[in-house]
Amino acid sequence: MKILVVEDNEALRDVLARILERMGYVPILAGHGKDGLDKAIAEKPNLIILDMMMPVMDGWETARAVRANPDAKNIPILATTALSRPRELKSCLDAGCNGYIVKPFSVRNLQRKIGELLAAPIAKV
């Protein structure tokens, strides 16, 4: 299974790639939302892990663009964010993310969230 990681922080992106490899997934990496959108359409990953605060195209724009694209609209999206207020977290869901995880997060919590999203039936948008 392929998981697209869209994260502008190179160190965190690399750590996430190593964690995903250890979990048995094939990571695909993107450094900003535009690159992530292009890779989501081309690679059709099983899941997108999406940082919400990035340059070029932020996570909210990226999630909306994924949902608007017929080739990518059904890919589950896990938002990663340092924002933790309820309305900020709701904005991730409103943009089209299927779930979120607040930074910093544990590997166990990441694994649980990935498992939940990959096991859940994805509603057609």
What are the salient characteristics of this protein?
5 helices; five-stranded parallel sheet; alpha/beta; 45% helix; 125 residues; Rossmann fold; 5 strands
Share of residues in strands: 15-25%
Strands in their spatial order, largest beta sheet = 2-1-3-4-5
Q: Number of helix segments?
A: 5
- Binned, the helix content reads 40-55%
Average pLDDT reading: 93
- What's the N-to-C terminus distance? 22 Å
- Largest sheet properties: 5 strands, parallel
β-strand number:
5
List the secondary-structure elements in sequence, H or E.
EHEHEHEHEH
- The CATH first-level class comes to Alpha Beta
- Shape by Cα distribution: globular
Poorly predicted spans: none
Instruction: Quote the CATH topology.
Output: Rossmann fold
Looking at the overall shape, the CATH architecture is 3-Layer(aba) Sandwich
Radius of gyration: 13 Å
- Structural class by SSE content: alpha/beta
The number of domains: 1
Q: Could you state the CATH homologous superfamily? A: Response regulator
Structure description:
The mean pLDDT is 93. Helix 2 packs parallel to helix 3. A five-stranded parallel beta sheet has the order 2-1-3-4-5, with helices on both faces. By secondary structure, the chain is an alpha/beta fold. Strand 3, helix 3 and strand 4 form a beta-alpha-beta unit. The longest helix has 13 residues, at 10-22. Helix content is 45%, strand content 19%. It has helices at residues 10-22, 33-43, 59-68, 86-94, 107-119, and strands spanning 2-6, 26-30, 47-51, 77-81, 99-102. The chain has a single domain (2-119), classed as Response regulator (Rossmann fold).
